[in-house]
Specification:
By secondary structure, the chain is an alpha/beta fold. The protein is elongated and about 95 Å long. Helix content is about 55%, strand content about 10%.
Length: about 600
């Protein structure tokens, strides 16, 4: 092959597996067959087999349609082995399918076609006349752990499939093929042989062979231009390798492996991480979509220097990914626990992560200022969610703040907080108070109501008793050991309804925030759905001051210390319970909330 020539061959899998292939160590792992912690995903292998089988079923006695599965890009080395630059997923899956078909026939005690054996392993003769046995496909990246060799040798079913992510994915893929053979081909030897014949004679690929790895990487980029077939994360990796020196490949490969591991351990989608990184690190508009990220990189090399300094850029990505993984574990970039991050997860659920953008932008802050940032994010995020601020809108505000925070020194941090968080909450103070005064149980997610009640209950306890191990962690308040109690029961008995008076069976009243109370499960079981005059005899058993003082400031032993007395005196009590009490308590909780989330303003003093 000349220095510039590129060879493109349309070939069957039979022809393809007459040659030897290697997935180089700088390539990404095998990801088909991967499932997330919930067991979702991993459909690619099943789809691969289903699509082929659909065409196979259209075959007649005299005609069988061909089926094209895509393109691979290769570069031949000095030993006549093709390095796979693009197409690892489909090539590995096809190879595993051949191994599984062979294993099924062996278990059925059938003789093996010599051609099938040769498609899995063969030998080649070197220039000295020595015969070298090798498998048709080899994986060189470290995480493969030699697993493909075990499947090629027919011992894969005995392998430890939980060692690494790649080994697990390859094991899942192989098992999917075996299930296909069992369910669709019904473990019938004749059907297995016939499907093997179709697979190798009628399933086709286009193999593009290039003279150099650099040329192969360029072809890879061209084939997958604008993310067709691959996403921006894969294309970015290719872009870095394409601009790196071959001497940097090992270092770059290790960096990329660490990067993808950090993102995986954060249980994050790579493209979401990449988008958030760009929004946090550069003056990128919040409207940036995942599908145009790769184009953004191509147009902004002067900002990122990913082409001129690919290894350095990969290091920056890795540092951000390590911080991101810590954020996902409720920690700061250095690994220390941050209550503000964990609390924001409790109020927002696992799906709300836009605040990670500003957390990445604020990694340069001192530990105390970073903690303030986390607390301000929690307060403001709650206000946004309660007031119904659209996600795209608060993401835009987060991104704008992140752009400024990147260059904000610690000395100017308090002014930054005032401008971007305190004033934001002040602008929403009236809306916030109005919303809380009318809030009902079903108006927002149940975990958010639980967070709201827990945060207010914790606030009163901290005011009375100060910090302690049992009060500092909001998780202890929202845990499964506590219930959301309906003071007027949702399914109250006759005595409860009669004592309450008008509206006792009105769900608009029953589900109001003012009718909700955080209480321990053990106590809640004791009071059940009884009347209020009986419940208030049990409430004082609670360890939470707000619950103990529901009916009387003297309920239980609240203490005599100044802080405790002051906190107890600030609690509004309700000796009787009726619709007016529900309304008044909701106003009281709203006033408390303006303190807890610091949303008071001169213009919006809160409810009367």
């Amino acid at each position: 092959m000349s220095e510039q020539s590129i060879i493109s061959d349309d070939m069957t899998l039979k022809r393809m597996f007459q040659d030897f292939y290697r997935v180089p160590d700088y390539q990404r792992e095998y990801v088909w067959g991967e499932t997330n912690p919930k067991g979702e995903g991993g459909e690619e292998v099943d789809q691969f087999l289903t699509d082929i089988y659909t065409e196979y079923e259209n075959a007649t006695k005299d005609f069988a349609p061909e089926y094209f599965i895509g393109t691979i890009v290769v570069c031949k080395d000095d030993n006549d082995v093709f390095e796979l630059i693009d197409g690892q997923q489909r090539t590995t899956t096809a190879y595993l399918t051949l191994c599984a078909l062979r294993d099924a026939l062996v278990e059925l005690e059938q003789s093996l076609p010599e051609e099938l054996k040769g498609q899995i392993a063969s030998s080649t003769v070197d220039w000295q006349g020595e015969s070298i046995a090798r498998f048709r496909l080899e994986l060189q990246y470290e995480d493969s752990g030699g697993i493909l060799v075990q499947y090629a040798e027919g011992t894969g079913k005995y392998a430890n499939k939980e060692q690494t992510r790649s080994i697990r994915n390859i094991g899942n893929a192989y098992q999917t093929v075996r299930e296909f053979i069992s369910s669709t081909l019904e473990n019938d030897p004749a059907a297995i042989r016939k499907f093997h014949g179709y697979l190798t004679n009628k399933v086709k690929i286009i193999r593009i062979q290039t003279p150099t790895i650099a040329k192969a990487l360029k072809i890879f980029e061209t084939i997958n231009d604008r993310g067709v077939g691959l996403d921006a994360m894969d294309l970015l990796k290719n872009l870095l390798f394409m601009n790196a020196k071959e001497s940097e490949y090992t270092k770059l490969k290790d960096l990329w492996k660490q990067l993808t591991d950090e993102i995986y351990n954060a249980r994050e989608k790579p493209l979401r991480f990449l988008r958030y990184y760009l929004l946090a690190s550069f003056d990128v508009d919040s409207k940036l979509r995942e599908e145009v990220i790769y184009d953004w990189f191509l147009k902004n090399e002067k900002l990122t220097k990913h082409a001129s300094e690919p290894t350095k850029f990969a290091n920056k990505l890795l540092d951000a990914a390590k911080a991101y993984r810590n954020f996902a574990s409720n920690r700061n970039a250095s690994g220390g626990i941050e209550r503000g991050i964990s609390n924001t997860r409790l109020l927002g659920g696992k799906s709300i992560k836009q605040h990670f953008i500003i957390l990445m932008a604020g990694r340069h802050l001192t530990p105390s200022n970073f903690t303030k940032l986390c607390d301000e994010i929690e307060k403001t995020m709650f206000v946004w969610l309660i007031t119904g601020t659209p996600g795209k809108e608060y993401e835009r505000r987060i991104v704008d703040a992140a752009h400024e925070l990147r260059t904000t020194p610690d000395d100017d941090f308090d002014q930054f907080i005032l401008n971007h968080f305190k004033k934001e909450r002040e602008s929403l103070a009236t809306h916030f108070s109005t919303r809380l005064q009318t809030l009902k149980f079903g108006d927002t997610r149940q975990f958010r109501i639980r967070y709201l009640l827990a945060k207010i209950t914790q606030h009163v306890d901290l005011q009375a008793y100060g910090p302690s191990q049992g009060r500092d962690d909001l998780e202890d308040y929202v845990s499964g050991g506590n219930d959301i109690e309906h003071i007027l029961p949702d399914n109250g008995d006759g005595d409860a309804l009669s004592e309450f008076g008008d509206g006792g069976d009105d769900q608009e009243i029953i589900q109001r925030l003012g009718n909700l109370l955080l209480i321990e499960k053990s106590i809640n079981r004791a009071i059940q759905n009884g009347k209020y005059s009986e419940k208030i005899k049990v409430y004082p058993q609670s360890k939470y001051l707000l619950t103990r003082c529901q009916a009387s400031k003297q309920s239980g032993q609240v203490g005599v210390a100044d802080k405790i007395t002051k906190a107890a005196e600030s609690i509004e009590v309700f000796p009787v319970w009726n619709s007016t009490s529900v309304e008044d308590r909701q106003k009281f909780l709203t006033r408390l909330a303006t303190d807890v989330w610091d949303v008071k303003s001169g213009k919006a003093a809160g409810p009367a």
